[in-house]
Design a protein that fits this description.
heterodimer, A: alpha/beta, Peroxisomal Thiolase, Chain A, domain 1, 2 domains, ten-stranded mixed β-sheet, two-stranded antiparallel sheet, 14 strands, 33% helix, globular, B: mainly alpha, Non-ribosomal Peptide Synthetase Peptidyl Carrier Protein, Chain A
Chain lengths: 407, 86
């Protein structure tokens, strides 16, 4: 395989706590709006200790799907398909032959159909019913979002799920980027989806003792942890030549992807792993630290991540770290786990395109351990030539994408 | 030694990461080689054992600075258990 394509983005889709389309999501990010609120998803969460999450509020499946389709679609797949449709509509692509068989659908998700899991377990363990709904298994499988995107959009090339917890979407998009770059496929619809705000999952996160009771304040003094989020985001990737030949509106360019594993602690972040993933993304993009102006940080709002990520940025960027604008959009949309990297890549692409850095909201005051420029509370105009989007997962799996302004 | 003390010691002993035949009430927690996840798992074990709620956020609480010795943990658990009985 000799083809080495430049890979451009021609479509964006997003279903998020800040809006169920990309334009609304992006406007709210720029305005520094918080998508956090009381947990409302059934079954009612009175019993939960955790009261706050970033839900995709008032999501109405019947606006997007026929009623009979819904027996096949967990909330996570609904988000994935809605985001994919938006991205494809923006790209203007029609997936007839032969493009259909030359297009990949690669979708990251951390846990898959968690609502279906929870509901089914409740039926058999609590309600003592003897049967669950017939499509329980294909609804909850971790590849369901990838399969449903493939089916709903007629994508017949390589299609599969990528699972690496909080880095799932970034790994998925990075892999799709490499496939398009190498000419293995002519197009990719790729991103991530998660719908993990269920009673059982929230209980699991409570037990880890890493959630903030109210607000997510990445990199700030007095931060108290992460807030769970949910949603999906998708991008359409294609070779520059193809996009130009059909007169597509090019939104940005993906130029690098780096991965690493810590092979250390199961949950504690690792500076070395983070540094190697960022350096590998820069090398893949044939860029040097000084080429980057903006970092969309992993920035979960936990004490450990934000301090370690700051140290990693110092190590990877040297003196240039001081000049970087670093922000965490998780302050506004929470941590959407397997979808997070996709939500953040969409934000990064639009930040580069419009020369506006979305802020880190909830920022109170500097923490001596976090001494970079986190764009506190208010968006900022900044000429950005290139940016990184960081994702660092439980299990020590790290993934970083590099984005460049298209010119 | 109280029942609470022996139960807490047994829970901590399961998680220690240093070669040491026994855990004593006077041991410093710092000397037991405990890691951050060990704290979360010990708190769970203690909550389950005594049916109590321990308010703990890994971002803001540091058991290695809030509690010096095994005895300090025992005292805190005894207080929570006593509170429950009221």
């Amino acid at each position: 395989m000799t083809a080495v394509n430049r890979v451009v983005v021609t479509g964006l889709g997003a279903v998020t706590p800040l809006g169920q389309t990309t334009p609304v999501y992006w406007d709210n990010l720029k305005a520094g709006v918080s998508g956090l609120g009381p947990i409302t998803l059934p079954p009612s969460s009175e019993e939960l200790t955790q009261k706050v999450a970033a839900e995709v509020k008032n999501f109405d499946p019947l606006k997007h799907f026929a009623e009979r389709q819904l027996s096949t679609l967990d909330r996570v797949s609904q988000f994935a398909v809605v985001a994919a449709r938006e991205a494809i509509a923006q790209s203007g692509l029609v997936f007839d032959m032969p493009l259909s068989v030359r297009t990949a659908a690669i979708v990251g998700t951390g846990v898959g159909g968690q609502t279906t899991h929870d509901d089914s377990f409740r039926r058999v363990y609590v309600e003592k019913r003897t049967r669950v709904f017939p499509l329980t298994i294909p609804k909850l499988m971790v590849n369901a979002p990838a399969s449903q995107v493939s089916m709903a959009c007629g994508l017949r090339g390589p299609a599969f799920a990528v699972a690496s917890a909080c880095a799932s979407a970034t790994h998925a998009i990075g892999l799709a980027f490499h496939m398009v770059r190498a000419g293995q496929v002519d197009c990719a619809v790729t991103g991530g989806a998660e719908a993990c705000i269920t009673f059982g999952t929230v209980r699991g996160w409570e037990a880890m003792r890493v959630m903030s009771p109210d607000v997510c304040r990445p990199f700030s003094k007095d931060r108290m942890g992460l807030i769970l989020g949910e949603g999906a985001a998708m991008v359409v990737l294609e070779p520059l030549e193809r996009a130009q030949a059909r007169g597509a509106n090019i939104l940005g360019e993906i130029v690098g992807f780096g991965m690493s594993a810590d092979a250390a602690d199961l949950t504690a972040p690792d500076q070395g792993g983070m540094v190697r993933a960022m350096q590998s993304a820069l090398a893949d993009a044939r860029m040097v630290p000084a080429d980057i102006q903006y970092i969309n940080a992993h920035g979960t709002g936990t004490a450990a991540n934000d301090e370690t990520e700051t140290k990693a940025l110092h190590e990877a960027f040297g003196p240039h770290a001081e000049k970087l604008a670093v922000s965490s959009t998780k302050s506004m949309v929470g941590h959407a786990l397997g979808a997070a990297g996709a939500l953040e890549l969409v934000a990064t692409i639009l930040a580069v395109r419009e020369s506006i850095v979305p802020p880190t909201i909830g920022y109170l005051a500097p923490d001596p351990a976090c001494d970079l420029d986190y764009v506190p509370n208010t968006a900022r105009s900044l000429a950005i030539e290139a940016a990184l989007s960081n994702s660092f997962a439980f299990g020590g799996l790290n993934a970083v994408l590099a984005v460049k302004k298209f010119a | 030694m109280s029942d609470v003390a022996s139960d807490v010691i047994a829970i901590i002993a399961k998680k220690k990461r240093v070669e040491k035949p026994t855990v004593e009430i006077t041991d410093n927690l710092a000397d037991l080689g405990l890691e951050s996840l060990d704290a979360v798992e010990m708190i769970f074990d203690i909550e389950e054992k005594f049916d109590i709620q321990i308010p703990y956020n890994a971002n803001t609480n540091n058991p290695r600075t809030e509690f010096e010795t095994v005895g300090d943990v025992v005292k805190a658990v005894e207080a929570l258990v006593a509170q429950k009985k009221l």
